[in-house]
Specification:
Shape: elongated
Helix content: over 70%
Radius of gyration: 13 Å
């Protein structure tokens, strides 16, 4: 599970950088940032829920 979250974070980070670097696909950068934040939050919530058990 942790590996999946790390891979997704890396993919979203790359998409964000590419989207912001190429002005024509600026929307890709926005989507990458949103997905990066969402994945980080989900990973953090799952990790903290896993520690409670």
């Amino acid at each position: 599970m942790v590996v999946l979250v790390v891979v997704l974070l890396a993919v979203w980070l790359v998409l964000s950088i590419v989207g912001f670097a190429i002005e024509g696909i600026f929307w890709l950068g926005i989507i990458g940032v949103v997905l990066f934040v969402a994945t980080a939050i989900v990973g953090w919530l799952r990790r903290s829920a896993h520690r409670r058990v």
